[in-house]
């Protein structure tokens, strides 16, 4: 068996869930695909759009039709707004997204939660959120203090999933694991250890809290000790590891297929 580098959590959120607004995060998102998704799903969040594009561009025309204020500025101006050249000519100022409170979430009947422990690379976080949205993850939980927050780079890499997937920011991951276990979730830590069992043949619990760890150190020991199961992905190639976003996609796909 070869190593697995990273870990996540997933659950299901219903419309009854109450949301709490976080006001201290970035107010900018970037990238055409990301902005397309926000425009489609929650256009009311878009305050204004800065762009190098002109009328005739599909996204520009859709924004104009929706009555959203557009400011045409140069490429350097966009780069300065988000400290990145990967904006594809679009940067939007948006109202802060809403976050789920775990206590309220647990009042409803959900099945799968993804917990992220110390994911510091914004590209990895973005790719993880994209996988979470694609595989129907109902809630992503991450730490306020350990890892990157939702940045413009995360929003672009996630292709807008960062603005769509239900998320909860918590101060203590270990206590949060206990909360989910008390609500009949089984905690599954993705890691390579003596306790780990191969993914093949694993019977996923109906209510699962999947814990994905950091780029390098994996799941913290305090979280690993609390886990009910430990999973590893068997490797058969010459490269002996997956990055966290790839590993997350593999595990989420396994869970989804197991539920069919």
**Strand neighbour order, sheet with most strands:** 2-5-3-4
Q: Which fold name corresponds to the CATH topology of the largest domain?
A: Alpha/beta knot
> Given the structure, what is the number of helices?
9
Number of domains: 2
Measured between the Cα atoms of the first and last residue, the distance is 27 Å
Assign the CATH superfamily of the largest domain: SPOUT methyltransferase, trefoil knot domain
Q: How many β strands by DSSP? A: 13
Shape: elongated
Given the helix and strand composition, which structural class is it?
Answer: alpha/beta
The first-level CATH class name of the largest domain? Alpha Beta
What Rg is obtained from the alpha carbons, in whole angstroms? 19 Å
Could you say what the CATH architecture of the largest domain is?
A: 3-Layer(aba) Sandwich
Q: How do the helices and strands follow one another from N- to C-terminus? A: EEHEHEHEEHEHEHEHEEEHEH
| Major sheet description | 4 strands, mixed
Helix content: 25-40%
In short:
Helix content is 31%, strand content 21%. The protein is α/β, with parallel strands linked by helices and 260 residues long.
Structure commentary:
Helix content is 31%, strand content 21%. It is of the alpha/beta class. The protein has two domains: 28-94, 2-Layer Sandwich (60s Ribosomal Protein L30, Chain: A); 99-259, Alpha/beta knot (3-Layer(aba) Sandwich), CATH 3.40.1280. α5 packs parallel to α9. It is elongated, with a radius of gyration of 19 Å.
């Amino acid at each position: 068996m070869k190593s697995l580098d990273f870990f996540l959590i997933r659950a299901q959120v219903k419309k009854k869930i109450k949301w709490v607004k976080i006001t201290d995060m970035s107010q900018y998102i970037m990238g055409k695909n990301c902005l397309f998704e926000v425009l489609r799903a929650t256009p009311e969040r878009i305050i204004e759009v800065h762009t190098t594009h002109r009328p005739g561009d599909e996204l520009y025309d859709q924004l104009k039709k929706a009555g959203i204020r557009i400011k045409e500025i140069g490429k350097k101006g966009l780069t300065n707004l988000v400290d990145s050249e990967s904006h594809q000519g679009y940067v939007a100022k948006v109202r802060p997204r809403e976050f789920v409170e775990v206590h309220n979430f647990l009042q409803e009947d959900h099945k799968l939660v993804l917990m992220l422990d110390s994911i510091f690379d914004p590209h990895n976080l973005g790719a993880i959120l994209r996988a979470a949205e694609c595989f129907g993850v109902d809630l992503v939980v991450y730490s306020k203090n350990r890892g990157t927050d939702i940045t413009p780079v995360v929003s672009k890499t996630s292709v807008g999933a960062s603005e769509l997937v239900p998320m909860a920011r918590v101060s203590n991951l270990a206590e949060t694991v206990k909360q989910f276990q008390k609500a009949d979730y089984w905690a599954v830590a993705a890691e390579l250890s003596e306790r780990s069992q191969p993914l093949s043949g694993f019977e996923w619990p109906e209510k699962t809290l999947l814990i994905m760890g950091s780029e390098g150190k994996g799941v913290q020991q305090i979280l690993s000790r609390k886990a009910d199961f430990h999973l590893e992905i068997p490797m058969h190639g010459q490269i002996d590891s997956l990055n966290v976003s790839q590993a997350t996609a593999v595990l989420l796909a396994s869970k989804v297929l197991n539920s069919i």
